[in-house]
Specification:
Length: 117
């Protein structure tokens, strides 16, 4: 890659962009979110939960996985605020944490489907 002959920058542009960029802590949280979605098993869980609220047993049958494995992955997703749970008697149901997660996942899915044409 060729080097610049002269080092010059646009100070006004730098100030404008700096106002809208992520702070370090925000960048770390975003990277952690993408890291969580960087695992095919977790992607399949998030995909299922984008369609309906489900319990661990439902997810284990749907994904043909052991309950303990699904439960472990749900714990990670919950820690990173990608899913949340609610208790109904002895049952615990999982759903996506909020509309931001739903939108992020829908956009990423659309991007993948668009690229496969």
């Amino acid at each position: 890659m060729p080097a610049c002959d002269v080092f010059a920058f646009d100070e006004a542009l730098i100030r404008k962009v700096a106002r809208g960029t992520l702070k370090s802590v925000q960048a770390e949280r975003l990277a952690a979110t993408f890291k969580m979605l960087g695992n095919p098993t977790r992607v399949r869980i998030v995909d299922a939960l984008s369609h309906a609220e489900m319990c661990v047993c439902d997810l284990s049958v749907l994904l043909d996985m052991r309950v303990s494995n699904v439960s472990h992955q749900l714990g990670l997703l919950k820690t990173h605020h990608i899913v949340r749970s609610r208790r109904d008697g002895k049952m615990v149901y999982y759903r996506l944490d909020d509309e931001h997660v739903r939108t992020l996942f829908a956009q990423a899915t659309a991007h993948v489907k668009h690229g496969s044409r």
